[in-house]
Design goal:
By secondary structure, the protein is α+β, with helices and mostly antiparallel strands. The protein contains 18 helices and 26 strands. The longest helix has 22 residues.
Length: 672
């Protein structure tokens, strides 16, 4: 009897620990929850892009090449190659979560098993032979992230055990009294790369409830505040974020690695309930929005923060690293879950439709390393030929595959729609009942969104629809009856008793918007819904005209004595924050997703004989997608725009200055 009691206690102990932690506020519940595996089927614009990425990219990779560095541990000069397996695998796990097929399951099972075999008797899981190489801890981070993802998807305990042993090994070499983690990795990055191990350490803690992992996480964060050999003031990631210091002035300004550390703070908040960590992450993210994120939803120049919001009209070198785009989306997803604030969904929407999809080739097989606002698309080089990939090619799909997790979510009162996309979502509500939502729309090409409810019986729940911050007005009908709805904090909330077959129709504001550049009021850009527009040399040829955007800032005047019409421009300083312009949707030319006729003004002589004309502009993601030097594009339009110099020549050299030859999309011998 005593043995049986002990057995029951052993089985139930993790449950009691979890319950105790929840009662003491140390386990924080997210405000918004993603749906279970296989609950989403997306068939619209985004669904097609994800399908292409899964079929031609993620599930078509020779993942054995990413395992090889862990097998040989030869401290190869390509020192960051340990990251490739984890980046690719977390994408594959998300793809399996979205499409849990037997084919996808076999791929992630085989890949996990292959990596597990490389762990040695000490628990070390690294692509380095000796500890503390420049990217040693960074690569271990990604390996642990991948193994935890495999456990979450499949319940395979071996993957979690190997991940936990890997953290145990890290504690042995980096715990109290050992070498400081803040003095590992590249000194010029002030250990941001190594310190980002915080996130997977906490993921292991939350799945094992072993206190030593939480203690190690807290110890890492404590070291951030202490002086070290790399920085006599310490990294100060928390203190500076709380003080609302600009991101470019926090520790080293390497955007990708910096954001990765704040992702870890989000997990530490979940584990402890200490609001200091969430406040630091939120302050930091808002500062990134204000200071670094450019119009298309990403930032960085040369992989570093650069005051990009102000400087984005310049021809910056190596603009918007795809890894920065991915990590910005992942950080926003963390904050959306934790806070329920749709501002983070707004940010992700802009990033996905513009910066992210602009970096992916049209068939989803490859990615750009950088994404300029002016110039040409250039595919990523083969950064590590033996692995047949680069950091951004491995990383890009991770952000794309997050979309099903935040497209439709649940909260404590019902369902929340963040993404408008044709498809079906099977949703388990908090009370155990289920509903099905179906969307029918061509968004973001058009603004008509139809949502239907399928429910086995009449039931009350709240449905929240995100109203993007750019949509100053909208229309809504329920079963054909117009209604205003209740809009609060960016969501339109409808709390009612729903019956099977109920229908909603939402039309957000798709008027063309003129955006003034934050750093130069005479530079302007156009948006329609979440889509940034761009000139593309295929449809807007260079010529000798000087052109001005013909927006509502102009007033047409008529002089009776001279019988002439001319356009008078209001002072730029008096322009409203959001001006509108008439855009005419036209059939898209080959290779382009969306195209519009845009009105411009030509002033050929003095202030008379002003003429109206048009140029064709396309969506940013399509601009330059031939990946050729002859296919140029630009987003920001100086006023006036001299078309002869609209497109820089051989702009690829601003992205790859050390290369003798323009990178090309490679033919991969290792593809499946």
């Amino acid at each position: 009897m005593k043995k049986r009691s002990l057995l029951i206690l052993a089985v139930l102990f993790p449950y009691f620990f979890e319950l105790h932690a929840q009662r003491n506020g140390t386990i924080t519940t997210d405000k918004l929850q993603p749906l279970p595996a296989g609950a989403s089927v997306m068939k619209g614009y985004l669904g097609k892009k994800m399908d292409q990425c899964i079929q031609n990219g993620i599930m078509n990779r020779a993942f054995e090449l990413y395992i090889k560095p862990f097998e040989v541990r030869n401290d190869d000069p390509n020192k960051w190659q340990g990251e490739f397996w984890g980046k690719w695998f977390t994408s594959a796990a998300l793809a399996h979560h979205y499409q849990p097929t037997s084919h996808h399951r076999k791929i992630i099972d085989d890949a996990s098993a292959g990596l597990i075999q490389t762990q040695d008797g000490t628990g070390k899981l690294s692509s380095y032979n000796k500890d503390f190489g420049d990217w040693d801890i960074w690569g271990r981070k990604y390996a642990i992230l991948g193994l935890v993802a495999h456990y979450d998807e499949t319940g395979n305990k071996a993957s979690l055990e190997v991940a936990a042993r890997s953290v145990d090994n890290l504690i042995e070499i980096l715990g109290p009294g050992k070498r400081k983690i803040t003095e590992t990795g590249l000194s010029l990055l002030e250990s941001l790369s190594s310190s980002s191990i915080l996130e997977p350490v906490l993921l292991v803690y939350r799945r094992t409830n072993q206190k030593r992992y939480l203690d190690f996480a807290k110890y890492i964060v404590k070291l951030w505040s202490l002086p070290n050999a790399y920085n006599p003031k310490g990294m100060r990631l928390i203190e500076d974020a709380l003080a609302k210091v600009d991101p470019i002035l926090i520790s080293a300004p390497k955007g990708y690695e910096q954001m990765s550390c704040y992702e870890g703070l989000c997990e530490l908040f979940r584990a402890t309930g200490d609001s200091t960590y969430l406040t630091a992450a939120l302050n930091f993210a808002h500062a990134v929005r204000k200071k670094e994120i450019m119009l298309v939803g990403s930032g960085s120049s040369g992989e570093l923060w650069c005051d990009g919001t102000i400087r984005q009209t310049e021809m910056l070198e190596q603009t918007m690293e795809t890894c920065v785009t991915v990590t910005w989306i992942k950080l926003c997803y963390q904050l959306l879950r934790l806070t329920g604030d749709p501002v983070w969904a707004d940010e992700m929407e802009i990033s996905v439709y513009n910066a992210l999809l602009g970096a992916m080739t049209t068939n989803g097989s490859w990615w750009a390393y950088f994404s300029p606002m002016i110039g040409e698309r250039v595919p990523s080089h083969l950064q590590v030929p033996s692995c047949q990939t680069s950091c951004c090619v491995a990383n890009g799909p991770r952000a794309l595959m997050t979309i099903p997790s935040w497209a439709v979510m649940t909260d404590d009162k019902g369902a929340v729609i963040n993404v408008y996309e044709s498809g079906t979502w099977n949703i388990p509500l908090k009370d155990g009942r289920n509903i099905t939502l179906k969307q029918q729309t061509t968004y973001p090409e058009d603004n008509n969104i139809k949502v239907s409810i399928e429910t086995p019986f009449n039931q009350r729940f709240r449905l929240k629809l995100r109203i993007p911050s750019w949509s100053r007005k909208f229309t809504l009908t329920i079963n054909g009856i117009p209604t205003n709805g209740n809009v609060s904090n960016g969501y339109l909330s409808i709390d009612r008793i729903w019956k099977n077959g109920d229908r909603l129709e939402l039309n957000p504001d798709f008027r063309g918007r003129v955006i003034k550049a934050p750093g130069n009021s005479n530079q302007m850009a156009l948006m329609r819904g979440p889509i940034v527009l761009a000139l593309d040399s295929r449809v807007a040829k260079a010529d000798d005209r000087n052109l001005w955007l013909l927006h509502e800032g102009y007033q047409w005047k008529h002089d009776k004595a001279w019988n002439i019409h001319y356009a008078l421009l209001k002072p730029v300083s008096s322009f409203p924050d959001q001006m509108y312009i008439d855009l005419k949707r036209i059939p898209a030319p080959e290779g382009i997703q969306m195209a519009f006729e845009v009105p411009f003004l030509q002033r050929p002589t003095h202030f008379v004989n002003h003429e109206k004309t048009t140029l064709i502009m396309c969506d940013y993601a399509s601009a330059g997608n031939k990946y050729e030097t002859a296919n140029n594009f630009r987003v920001w339009l100086p006023q006036p725009l001299y078309m002869r110099t609209a497109y820089p020549i051989e702009a690829w050299r601003s992205l790859y200055q050390r290369e003798d030859k323009r990178p090309a999309i490679p033919v991969l011998s290792g593809s499946k």
